[in-house]
Amino acid sequence: MQTRFILLHTSHAGNVGACARAMKTMGFDDLVLVAPRWANVLRREETIQRASGALDVLEKCRIVATLDEALDGLTHLCATAMTPRDFGPPTTTPREHFEMLSKQELLAHVQQAQTAYLAPKLAPVGLLAAAPGLPAQGGTARRGVDSGNAAACKASDPRSGGAWGPQTGVGFLFGSERFGMRNEDVYRCHVCLSIPSNPQFGSLNIGAAIQVIAYEWRLALGGFGAAPLAPVAGQAAAAPVNVPVLADARQVAGMLTHLEQSLVALGFLDPAAPKKLMPRLNALFNRAAVTQEEIHILRGIAKAVLLQAAQKSPPAVDESASV
Q1: Which residues lie closer than 8 Å to 303 by C-beta, 6 or more apart?
Q2: pLDDT on residue 314
Q3: Which pTM value belongs to this model?
Q4: 62-64 and 76-80 as β-strands: parallel, antiparallel, unpaired?
Q5: 317: CB partners within 8 A, 6+ apart
Q6: How far apart are CA 2 and CA 76, in angstroms?
């Protein structure tokens, strides 16, 4: 599963090196810096010293000007904050959220494995998927259980793409050392992670925060050293299951911009007083986990609205024409 750590407006070079070290310790190497204070931050002496050998992470690191450029391929965004916010995505602890994601992944993976195994059978797929212990025509209950166990073991393997498939990308966003994350960046995320800490002193260095979250995420992916389950002799491989490709955060942002233009054209949205309409729609589409095909449909609707609005607009008056 693709995992990316994104640092927004980092001001201290040493923290970049510390983050690279924390990531490599947990087996991650995809780091993106958005508009850091120093253009040469990756080559600064303090960065290299604090990386403590994680130079390969620094060499692979990308520097971009905007958050949009850092979100390619990501379908699930996790903001980080010390305290909950009045508005925005739900706030939870890393462990609680990662356990929820793991359960969703395992459930979806088992369902896909059962669907692939039971599809050729004459018995109703829905009934057998709900009760995998029931014998299928031409098969046995034991084989169905073994198939589910194999899927469960594969889902716990950190090297496996899991139920979401290779398309899935998870991004962890960290704000600047002084101000944290801006509200508009938090609104784009699916969840806000808050590390449980001393209520009287909850301040964590960004490198330490990344170490905690990277550790929790690695545990949720299965940790290290888990060997994949060997294939059962004589058991045919399950047929591939077509999984819809989720839209990444950048595609969702582009669709929202297109949708906003169409709402303005309809007169539904007043650009002078937008309130929180677009952040709420952003949260809605985050919960919906829209696919790339659904993004195309929504953008097609927005395009049609803009075309209709343009046709109904009165023609411009040429004031230079004589009466």
Answers
A1: 258, 262
A2: 67
A3: 0.66
A4: unpaired
A5: none
A6: 10
- For 129-163, the DSSP string reads HH-TTSPPTTS-HHHHHHHHHHHHHHHT-TTS--T
* 170, 3 Cβ separation under 8 angstroms: yes
Domains of the chain plus CATH, in order, are: 2-94+166-220 (3.40.1280.10), 105-155 (no CATH), 249-312 (1.10.8.590)
Please provide residue 224's backbone torsions phi and psi, each rounded to the nearest 5 degrees: -110, 155
Spatial distance between the Cα atoms of 174 and 105, rounded to a whole number of angstroms: 25
Contact status, residue 27 vs residue 63, Cβ threshold 8 Å: no
Instruction: Count the alpha carbons within 13 Å of 188 in the hemisphere toward its beta carbon.
Output: 24
Alpha carbon distances (Å) from 195 to 140, 203, 210, 300: 47, 10, 10, 41
- Rounded Cα distance between 177 and 38, Å, is 14
> And the tokens for 297?
């449909």
- Token code pair at residue 86: 């009045």
pLDDT digits (tens, 9 = 90+) for 13-64: 999 999 999 999 999 999 999 999 989 999 999 999 999 999 999 999 999 9
Distance CA 322, CA 304 (A): 36
If one counts every other C-beta atom within 10 angstroms of the C-beta of residue 230, the result is 8
**How far is Cα 132 from Cα 17, in angstroms, rounded to an integer?**
49
The pairing of strands 2-8 and 76-80 is unpaired
